[in-house]
Request: fold
Amino acid sequence: MMRMFDRWDVKGVKVEDPGLVKYVNLRPVVMPRTFGRNRGDFRKNDMNIVERFMNKLMITGHQGKRHKTTSGRFCGGYQTVMMHTMRAFEIIEERTKKNPVQVLLTALENAALYEEIAAYQLGGMIARKAVITSPQRRVDVALRHMTQGIYKSSFKKNRTLAEVIADELIAISRNDPKAMAVRERNRIEKEAEGAR
Reply:
């Protein structure tokens, strides 16, 4: 039987959100690395969710329209990210006594937003309208917000990256409003509610 990192069984792990089931791959792999075989917009669903999370950790992406947070200083280091992720999974297992892959999935579901804002031009003004977010975008945005939260909370702290990853994933899985991913989801959904 294959286990994630040859340690954690993914057989009992399942996605509770029915909208995300098709977009989260839980196929068991020992080493979550495909070397770019699943490039492209739609083939990324064939990639294991842990690998997608680690890829996002390497390049978290910019934040906001003005690129307040940039990922320009990130580069490579897949082996390093993988070792920190493995150590973070060990910390999660010690603290929560749960399968860390299940904690990652619960965090992903809690960070995935249902509604967001679309802006369009109406005459001479820009109007905003609430739109339902597609499941593929829900996973993508949730991963981005999770990794940006990890990136931000690692500054000016005397902790290792593994500890920061573990703290952030546990906080998001518990729906803690202090976690950046949960805070962003609440903010965007509140804006969408006002634009209905």
Remarks:
- The first helix runs from residue 49 to 58.
- The chain has one domain: 21-194.
- The beta strands are 115-122, 125-132.
- The chain has six helices and two strands.
